[in-house]
Amino acid sequence: GGGGYSDAMGTTRLSAFSILPARIARVGLAAVIGAGSLLAALLGGAWSAPTALAYSACQSSTASLWDGTNGLGLSTWGASAWINTRNAGFCTGNDPAGNKDTISAWSMVTDRQVANYAQAGYMRYRDQSNYHLFAEYTDTNCPSGYCHVDSPTLTYPSDNTQYWEVYSTDSDKIEMWASNSAIGNLRITWTGYDPTVSGSNHWDGPWNEQYNGETHNAGSDVPGSLDYKTSFTSVAYFPGSPWNGEQFPPGFSDVNDYPQPSGSKDYYCSQNGVPSEFNIWVHGTPCNG
User: Fold this and answer.
1) Helix (H) or strand (E) holding 131
2) Greatest mean pLDDT among 10-14, 55-59, 90-94
3) Cα–Cα nearest to 177, from 161, 199, 160
4) 108: helix, coil or strand?
């Protein structure tokens, strides 16, 4: 790689469940949340419930639940979004995932079938008080078919960070990064293979992009609340030729669209603002008021 960056000293921590099958199934999810309305409309009296976090009793099984946008359908070499850090609450009582349960927000690039992915964002385990940066990617050589890397770099509420993943012709790998004024350009990890080469880790094209908050129990919250939403801004992709590893961050192109939402309607809310931006949060009533 070129200059102007640093590498994270990440550690691997296995989750209590395999995320990969749920990600593959995601391609069939319907957009069950309405497209949302502008912030002014939402704050104009449609809400009557408290604005506190809405976490509730733990369900007996784990499930991958998302709030954000899936499958924009743009041919890309990567994905990027600025995501602010917001608090979230874990479900109460007996959590089947124990202290390995997580809450996260991320950007992600996938192959055409959503069978392979690489993502970067922030995450918190149940037994941790602070969020940290993380990256994850599919790899047939890793347990459960994916590798997970936890960075020691922490992020706190109100931080705003660009999380991006892109294929680099400099390394011949998909690289996963985080960038802001405090940490500079921080490479969290990269794939242990070249996804353009035939073999067990080959990615079929064209590649796609996704941006979401994620939980693994229906009683837990995605990051963000009505008063302090989690904002995804400059939602972007990387068309044309792959990144050559020289410009930091790379020259991503805004999607210039109103990303269609995904997720659970009961507690997970989504709202479009302007093109290439959206908010997510959790609330104690359905998002339609």
Assistant:
1) strand 131-138
2) 90-94
3) 161
4) strand
